[in-house]
Amino acid sequence: MSDELLMRDKVAVVTGAGRGIGRAIAVAFAQQGARVVVNDLGCGKDGTGKDPSPADEVTHEIIIRGGQATAHHGDASDAAQAQSLIDLATSTYGGLDVLVCMAGIARDKTALKMDEASFDAVYRNNVKSALLPAQAAARVFAQQRRGGHIVLCTSIAGLFGNYGQLNGAAASGAVYGMTRTLAIELKKQEVRVNAIAPVARTRMTDELPMFQGMPEESYGAQFVAPVAVFLSTKLCGELTGEVLSVAGAKVSVYRVMESEGAVLDDPRSVWDPREIARRFDDLSRL
Length: 286
Prior knowledge:
9 helices; 15% strand
């Protein structure tokens, strides 16, 4: 192998790695020299069913290309199975350096058609499949005392909202808050925690109006993988708590910003609603 490999001998866990973006990341990591645990429950887009073949196929693909990989077929949103995923990495390869959480499901519906079961399923799965592996990985990083990288998956819908994706947006918003909080809490351990907000055409997004009639290669999962490599290596330096968006060949950074605001002359006084309306342009100025 070349000395230029960015992840030589690193141990990486990638959830949701049997298809789409997760698969592209797992393969890219292996190409950069990482030993990869390929996690995928093999469920349907809506979270139902189970199939070991997606994880097995990606693992086989990595191995026949000369890489090292191990399959894990558990549900990353289940505490015991998330723990077993991290345990598999440490027992098989002797440690852990990188966790990338790409597992998720979708049951898109507008707000007025959203049933409780669809909301609960997406929110629980997409939030806990980030939280539980991240907790387990963070404990390993703390014990190893050599830092580490965690990359979570949020979405543009979670940051700005999107028609028909109330449950997914709520979950992605939670993952954004989780990214920021983990970045703060794990900074002393030199664990970098960042997120990717991908705009990519996969089986999860193929039915969205924005992708209809558009060549698949324009927004394929292959565009996201290099960003995951960047966030999982020393190339990202001390970068933590950030959200990088990938939309085809475009990479950008999303940040929550506070306006300059406005302050009353008398700090003991209370704003009048009419004054808020009158001075709204002033208090909302960035």
